[in-house]
């Protein structure tokens, strides 16, 4: 079994922040009411921006490229929940086991499951391989969990606390940089310089978080993402059949959301391995339809149309003036249980 390389310290820290040992409770002191533990919390999503914000009110972290997860540590055990609310505890047994060993009775930890490459960078393709591809049934022992927020802790809902306070408690809970559950380091740096360094080292980008913000579900601007290379999910609406390309796929035709409908945004013909091309072809052949699911005015010869139910993760450099992807490359299929949304033109 391949072992993930240890993460490199991104922020020098002293001893882990821990609360003092508990003393016997004074009977005259009233009990603080406990908050009911949520069965699921919709995640706070980062809003895409072209440049990092500036100012002391912003905290910065590396952007991880994996599956967004919430680890629930409950009295009855541990649950690993996907962004869409699906229980994937059995898919990430190492993460679940590590959560049981944390010194806490109840908690909900927000973070990202990733697999690191030899340089310590998160790699979405490696994560998918560890799970057996889209719709696979394998368990991933290679994945680690990068924790970046604490939403519930020892019977108390922390979402109304400012981010700085939640972060303080999280740093006290996650003590080691080399375990399966690791702290996503906060980096004290100028946003522009950090972004330039992240891009120079081949990282996906950075995340900026408002230090005074509460935890609010949705894409409301409390968290921002700044990407070195753009990467988003797009619906596959068809493919161009080829007699020479891998698995007969010359290119995939892609669509994004514009309001309530899908619109064609171009195609992608690079980034496929032999294995991934056949996985995509097998999935698409089950979704064939006679007519294009979106308005399409291009060449139709050799085009095979499909229901737009599969979401492909696509890297790209920019957009053309007429709304098409430039220099696109296929990264993988998003799993339906990951619930990753299709790119929307009104999301930025």
How does the overall form come out from the CA principal axes?
A: globular
- Rg, rounded, reads 22 Å
Would you identify the CATH H-level superfamily of the largest domain?
DNA ligase/mRNA capping enzyme
Oligomer: single chain
H/E topology pattern: EEEEHEHEEHEHEEEEEHEEEEEE
Strand content: 25-35%
Reading off the top of the CATH hierarchy, the class of the largest domain is best stated as Alpha Beta
* Structure classification: alpha+beta
How many helical stretches? 5
In summary, what is this structure?
By secondary structure, this protein is of the alpha+beta class.
Describe the structure.
With 348 residues, the chain is α+β, with helices and mostly antiparallel strands. The protein has two domains: 181 residues, DNA ligase/mRNA capping enzyme (D-amino Acid Aminotransferase, Chain A, domain 1, 2-Layer Sandwich), CATH 3.30.470.30; 109 residues, OB fold (Dihydrolipoamide Acetyltransferase, E2P) (Beta Barrel), CATH 2.40.50. The chain is 14% helix and 31% strand. The chain has five helices and 19 strands. Strands 11, 12, 13, 14, 15, 16 and 19 form a seven-stranded antiparallel β-sheet that branches. Strands 3, 4, 5, 6, 7 and 8 form a six-stranded mixed β-sheet that branches. A four-stranded mixed β-sheet has the order 1-10-9-2, covered by helices on one side. Strand 6 and strand 7 form a beta hairpin. The longest helix is centred in the middle third of the chain and has 11 residues. The radius of gyration is 22 Å and the shape is globular. About 1% of the residues have low confidence. Its EC number is 6.5.1.1. One of its GO terms (molecular function) is DNA ligase (ATP) activity.
